[in-house]
């Protein structure tokens, strides 16, 4: 019925709903099953929204037709052992690979639907040449990429229909094409997604 692509424009195969229309949909879904509602919120707010608003045009055009129609899921991996919604406290990092890209390292916790998703939005502290800090940056990762691995599932109380698991970054390579927003400005896509997610919740 298009529930996994409510935020996506119709040009990509989504429903293109307004915030008010989505609020009604979330409310009705939650009246039936809060896990289903949470699953739909995660995919729309934390998965699709950052890609729609902050991905490069070629990445957006590549991914959105599959995501908007629900053929693939999108997830959000930010929380860490010592960092909840405070992404300035992240320990995950990205280092230049000498070939115009970066290698990402770190462990993310409680990432909803990450082990089911085709793409995962993640955020790390980026390092420049010589280790100089370049701020928090966001990237879109493709499931199956070398160095990207799903860790153990986190058991939950009540959320029986949505998996939450660790996401392990073990040198996964990203390039400029994979970025979410400007390099060093990962706060913008992360905050935007989380604020919309809180509205939906």
Briefly say what this structure is:
This protein has 201 residues and is α+β, with helices and mostly antiparallel strands. The protein contains four helices and eight strands; from the N terminus they run αααββββββββα.
Report what the structure shows:
This protein has 201 residues and is of the alpha+beta class. Helix content is 30%, strand content 28%. The chain contains 4 helices and 8 strands, in the order H-H-H-E-E-E-E-E-E-E-E-H. The protein has helices spanning 19-32, 34-54, 57-68, 187-200; strands at residues 74-77, 93-96, 102-112, 119-127, 133-142, 148-153, 164-174, 179-180. Strands 1, 2, 3, 4, 5, 6, 7 and 8 form an 8-stranded mixed beta sheet that branches. A hairpin with a 5-residue loop joins strand 4 (119-127) and strand 5. Helix 1 runs antiparallel to helix 2 and helix 2 packs antiparallel against helix 4 (187-200). The chain is globular and about 55 Å long. The relative contact order is 0.18. The model has no long low-confidence stretch (mean pLDDT 93).
């Amino acid at each position: 019925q298009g529930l996994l692509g409510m935020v996506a424009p119709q040009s990509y195969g989504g429903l293109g709903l307004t915030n008010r229309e989505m609020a009604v949909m979330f409310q009705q879904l939650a009246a039936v099953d809060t896990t289903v509602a949470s699953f739909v919120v995660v995919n729309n707010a934390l998965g699709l929204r950052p890609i729609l608003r902050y991905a490069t045009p070629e990445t957006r055009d590549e991914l959105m037709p599959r995501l908007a129609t629900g053929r693939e899921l999108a997830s959000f991996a930010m929380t860490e052992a010592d960092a909840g919604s405070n992404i300035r406290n992240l320990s995950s990092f990205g280092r230049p690979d000498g070939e115009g890209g970066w290698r990402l390292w770190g462990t993310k916790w409680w990432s909803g639907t990450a082990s089911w998703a085709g793409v995962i939005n993640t955020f790390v502290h980026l390092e420049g040449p010589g280790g100089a800090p370049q701020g928090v940056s966001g990237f879109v990762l493709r499931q199956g990429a070398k160095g990207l691995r799903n860790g153990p599932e986190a058991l939950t109380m009540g959320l029986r229909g949505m998996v939450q698991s660790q996401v392990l970054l073990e040198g996964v390579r990203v390039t400029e094409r994979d970025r979410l927003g400007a390099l060093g400005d990962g706060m913008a896509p992360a905050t935007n997604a989380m604020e919309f997610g809180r509205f939906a919740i």
